[in-house]
Every structure is written in structure tokens, then in C-alpha cells.
TrEMBL record:
PANTHER family to which the protein is assigned, alphabetical: NUCLEOTIDE KINASE (PTHR23359)
Taxonomic lineage from the root: Eukaryota, Metazoa, Chordata, Craniata, Vertebrata
UniProt cross-references to Gene3D superfamilies, sorted A to Z: P-loop containing nucleotide triphosphate hydrolases (3.40.50.300)
Transmembrane segments: none
Family, as annotated: Belongs to the adenylate kinase family.
The protein, known as: Adenylate kinase active site lid domain-containing protein
Length: 135
């Protein structure tokens, strides 16, 4: 997400006025497992996840048949370190938006269970776009 640091949040303040910030609270282990299951096809940038979007043949790109690689920063030890660093950097950002009364937090482990709540919030804040026929 963005902003990830207090410096980025302050820079964003100079560009626009936020009236809604969404924070997704996902358990550390869930994030670590998802990121650690990510593999990429280097030439194209196609991303696979071995748990919910695996290639047809394990370790091989669906379109080219070339090998997939796991980025160094997606290996479990690196992911754990990245998540710890992110948590420390993001805490003041979360507190900033919480103090402004614009932070909305959602918790869970599955996108399809969190999304309806996020969608309801966004729908209540953003008017629907009507087609010319509906106007």
C-alpha cells in the first residue's frame, strides 16, 4: 500500500487531501505464506502463486515453458524481515490517519471475505457513475 512511511504520507498531504484511508489487517503468517508462494517468469513479469494461481506445470511458465524463479525477497526469511520492517514504518502512518478520523480498518485472511466490507464502505463514499441512458 501507499503511503508506507510518515515521510510519504506528508508528501502526499502536499499533493491532495485524503478523506478516506483503508488499512487491511492481515495476519503475519498469512502474508508470509502468500508472498513465499509467489514465483515469477523473469522475461515477462508474469506472476504465479503456488496456492491460488499455480502454473499448469509446476515451476514452468504457462505461455513459454521457461522456468519460473522465486525472487530473493520472496523467500520466507526475506519476507519475514520485510514484514517486520513494514510494520515498524507503517505504524506512525496508521496513527496519523487514525487521529484524523479517516482510517477504516478491515481484518481477515481471505480477499473474498474482506472485499464486501470494503466495497460497502467505498459505495457509501463514492456516488455511482450513471450511464447517459440512466441520466
Amino acid at each position: 500500500g501507499f503511503p508506507r512511511t510518515l515521510g510519504q504520507a506528508k508528501a502526499l498531504d502536499g499533493i491532495c487531501k485524503l478523506d478516506l484511508v483503508i488499512s487491511l489487517n492481515i495476519p503475519f503468517e498469512t502474508l508470509k505464506d502468500r508472498l513465499s508462494a509467489r514465483w515469477v517468469h523473469p522475461a515477462s513479469g508474469r506472476v504465479y502463486n503456488m496456492d491460488f494461481n499455480p502454473p499448469h506445470v509446476q515451476g514452468v511458465d504457462d505461455l513459454t515453458g521457461e522456468p519460473l524463479v522465486q525472487r530473493e525477497d520472496d523467500k520466507p526469511e526475506a519476507v519475514a524481515a520485510r514484514l517486520r520492517k513494514y510494520k515498524d514504518a507503517a505504524k506512525p502512518v496508521i496513527e496519523l490517519y487514525k487521529s484524523r478520523g479517516i482510517l477504516h480498518s478491515f481484518s481477515g485472511t481471505e480477499t473474498n471475505k474482506i472485499w464486501p466490507y470494503v466495497y460497502t464502505l467505498l459505495s457509501s463514499k463514492i456516488p455511482p457513475v450513471l450511464s447517459d441512458e440512466e441520466n
